[in-house]
Design goal:
Length: 293
């Protein structure tokens, strides 16, 4: 073999060699350490929610490892006896569940229409939907407040739900339209040849195929609505306020009732985390499928 026949290897850059070396065990250990640090406040909040207020005031949550007798469920009993917190928790459910279901269902219908139905100005209307993605929530607060007062729904749960649905639909339509556009046309044409109308085609063929995208959209909407405080502060009153507003009011009014704040904050955080981890596989596959179009 001559020198001309010898294969020439491309010289790798320093950054490429570092990235290749870091992809092994060192990077995994680093990511594990980062994950533990990220979860530390959550674990600390959990431990604090099971401690007596006097113990919280005198020592850190890590003292439970040396004195496990500090753990008690009195804080959660106090939380359940607090009518403001319990009612706000139910208000959060009444706001979050309808807002999520309506956005998913209406967004799915609109996404299917933009992907597979021909109507006048379809592309222009879709551009309007895309443009609405960049509209900030704050810009609509005052006009919507004025509208709600004329309609008589200002301060009601219905008004909060409608606001979340309105601002959740542009992203829902954009995501699901991209997903529906990837469905093979032959599959839809075969269903039409079998006599399926648009409604039956949408419910029995398209919706089952879109389960990953629907799950990812549902998680996005659920997390946004559950953790929202700005919209709830503006559009809710004392009878319709969600848990985020109730906890904020507890901090502002009392400031030292940690026996209510700690378990309330943990419940407010653990429920969306549970929803996310329960649907994380569908979340990842749905986001990837809707992002490639």
């Amino acid at each position: 073999m001559t020198a001309l026949d010898t294969p020439v290897r491309a010289k790798r850059s320093v950054a490429a060699r570092v990235a290749s070396g870091a992809a092994g065990g060192v990077m995994r250990v680093f990511l594990l350490v980062v994950a533990l640090i990220w979860l530390m406040p959550t674990f600390g909040l959990l431990m604090s929610s099971f401690r007596d207020p006097t113990d919280i005031a005198t020592s850190g949550w890590w003292k439970v490892f040396s004195a496990p007798a500090q753990l008690t469920a009195k804080s959660y009993e106090t939380l359940l006896d607090n009518d403001t917190i319990t009612s706000s928790l139910f208000n959060t459910i009444w706001i979050t569940v309808p807002s999520t279901l309506l956005v998913v269902f209406i967004g799915a219908m609109a996404g299917y229409a933009f992907a597979w139905m021909d109507f006048k100005g379809r592309d222009w209307w879709f551009l309007v939907v895309v443009a609405l993605l960049v509209v900030p929530v704050q810009i609509a607060l005052i006009p919507v407040v004025t509208l709600y007062r004329h309609l008589g729904i200002f301060g009601d749960i219905l008004g909060v739900v409608l606001f979340h649905v309105g601002f959740g639909l542009p992203f829902a339509i954009f995501l699901l339209r991209n997903f529906f556009a990837e469905i093979p046309r032959e599959l839809l044409e075969a269903a039409r040849l079998d006599g399926a109308g648009e409604t039956r085609l949408f419910l029995t063929v398209v919706m089952p195929l879109a389960a990953p995208a629907l799950a990812s959209l549902g998680i996005f909407q659920f997390l946004w609505v559950w953790n929202d405080m700005l919209v709830a502060l503006v559009f809710s009153n004392s009878g319709s306020q969600p848990l985020t507003v109730a906890l904020q009011q507890q901090v502002r009014q009392f400031g030292s009732n940690i026996d209510v704040l700690a378990p309330g904050a943990f419940i407010s955080m653990v429920i969306p985390l549970a929803v996310f981890f329960a649907f994380q596989r569908e979340f990842v596959s749905g986001v990837m499928a809707g992002a490639v179009k």
